[in-house]
UniProtKB/TrEMBL annotation:
<feature type="domain" description="Fatty acid hydroxylase">
    <location>
        <begin position="140"/>
        <end position="289"/>
    </location>
</feature>
<feature type="transmembrane region" description="Helical">
    <location>
        <begin position="20"/>
        <end position="42"/>
    </location>
</feature>
<keyword id="KW-0812">Transmembrane</keyword>
<dbReference type="GO" id="GO:0016020">
    <property type="term" value="C:membrane"/>
</dbReference>
<feature type="transmembrane region" description="Helical">
    <location>
        <begin position="186"/>
        <end position="204"/>
    </location>
</feature>
<keyword id="KW-1133">Transmembrane helix</keyword>
<dbReference type="GO" id="GO:0006643">
    <property type="term" value="P:membrane lipid metabolic process"/>
</dbReference>
<dbReference type="InterPro" id="IPR006694">
    <property type="entry name" value="Fatty_acid_hydroxylase"/>
</dbReference>
<dbReference type="Pfam" id="PF04116">
    <property type="entry name" value="FA_hydroxylase"/>
</dbReference>
<keyword id="KW-0472">Membrane</keyword>
<feature type="transmembrane region" description="Helical">
    <location>
        <begin position="105"/>
        <end position="123"/>
    </location>
</feature>
<keyword id="KW-0560">Oxidoreductase</keyword>
<dbReference type="GO" id="GO:0005506">
    <property type="term" value="F:iron ion binding"/>
</dbReference>
<dbReference type="GO" id="GO:0008610">
    <property type="term" value="P:lipid biosynthetic process"/>
</dbReference>
<dbReference type="GO" id="GO:0050479">
    <property type="term" value="F:glyceryl-ether monooxygenase activity"/>
</dbReference>
<protein>
    <recommendedName>
        <fullName>Fatty acid hydroxylase domain-containing protein</fullName>
    </recommendedName>
</protein>
<dbReference type="GO" id="GO:0012505">
    <property type="term" value="C:endomembrane system"/>
</dbReference>
Length: 358
């Protein structure tokens, strides 16, 4: 385990302090809203603002089946356009298909147990206790709480050697696109901290805002993983440059997120040591982990990738890889390489791994 020096601890303390401040912003805004309105509840989040009411059925359908259909349609377009360069073969196909289908079957019971059994037991008297919060307040509360928490979850899985191997499956794909968007170790997925945070807020009465956040976030993150570079026109045409400047700092785009999946950082484009944001890229801007180049990496994945078996990538450490030298093999440690102090975040280790036999 790498030793964290004084500067690293100071940087981490500063970032966590800023995070707590950001978490508090929606709460402060809601408090001020009621202070200015003398405590009068003008509207509950249980009913949408009138100008959004017509969107509710669409968001409900998108959540139940629309996102899956969107992924399949976009993935088909990517394949027809030849955007995978014939790399979606053999073990890659198995890993992507299993990682796409299995969580949809295995994760719902886990979340249902947490929402319907664990929460009523742990906080039995707080169900719907936040139902008085206006829709806009609930929306921003969940959007910030969910995505900032995921930023930290993601960032720690790159910087803590033990945690990295639960996330490396997502970075092992030598391509970007819908095929690999759900490619994750199941243990990484089932312990998604923001899932349980959002489930708790939903139990407390913020279900409708949670629905809207989920759908919007899903489209942004899927778009950022897509091999279709939809953000290119914003960089190409000068008239769109002001929009591009705001867009690429606010949300994840193909250019910024593809850089995160690059197999090198030595070309000035790849940035696997940062660009951790999922829905909001502004977290990277705030914490100094952002790199914006408006360019796309030439290659993706990990140079040390051994094309491990689907079961090892999906369920390590329950199942180990039989590939010699693999970081997922029995008795092998994946030791992150330290980057130079001036380029690595808070002198923390990054994920370019060196398998070490023990």
């Amino acid at each position: 385990m790498a030793i964290i020096d004084h500067n690293s601890r100071g940087r981490l303390t500063r970032d966590l302090s800023i995070s707590f401040l950001i978490y508090s912003l929606p709460v402060v805004a809601i408090f001020l809203y009621f202070k200015l309105t003398n405590g009068v509840v003008a509207e509950s989040h249980l009913t949408l603002p009138s100008f959004l009411e017509f969107t509710k059925p669409a968001f409900e359908n998108i959540r139940t089946w629309g996102l899956t259909a969107f992924m399949l349609i976009l993935g088909t377009i990517e394949f027809i356009a030849g955007l995978y360069d014939d790399e979606w073969t053999g073990e890659e196909r198995k890993v992507d298909i299993v990682c796409f289908l299995a969580p949809k079957l295995l994760l719902p019971p886990v979340i249902a147990f947490f929402s319907l059994t664990a929460l009523p037991y742990l906080i039995p008297n707080l169900a719907n206790s936040l139902s008085w919060v206006p829709f806009w307040g609930g929306f921003f509360l969940i959007a910030i709480a969910d995505d900032l928490t995921q930023y930290w979850y993601h960032r720690l899985h790159h910087q803590v050697p033990f945690l990295w191997r639960f996330h490396r499956t997502h970075h092992s794909a030598p391509y970007m696109g819908m095929a690999m968007a759900s490619r994750q170790n199941f243990i990484y997925t089932v312990f998604f901290s923001q899932i349980y945070l959002t489930a708790t807020l939903t139990y407390l009465g913020l279900g409708l805002p949670a629905l809207f956040v989920l759908v919007i976030k899903s489209f942004i993150t899927l778009g950022a993983h897509s091999s279709i570079k939809w953000d290119k026109p914003f960089y190409k045409y000068r008239i769109l440059h002001p929009i591009a400047w705001v867009l690429e700092r606010l949300i994840s785009t193909p250019a910024t997120h593809h850089a995160h999946h690059a197999d090198t950082s030595g070309d000035g484009v790849g940035h696997f040591k940062g660009n951790f944001g999922n829905m909001f890229f502004i977290w990277d801007v705030i914490f100094g982990t952002a790199l914006i180049t408006r360019k796309y990496p030439k290659s993706y994945g990990m140079k040390s990738y051994k094309q491990e078996e689907w079961y090892a990538q999906f369920l390590w450490p329950i199942f180990k890889s039989k590939k010699e030298g693999s970081a997922l093999a029995e008795g092998v440690l994946a030791v992150p390489v330290r980057a130079k102090a001036e380029t690595v975040l808070a002198s923390a280790p990054i994920y370019q791994e060196e398998p070490v036999q023990v």
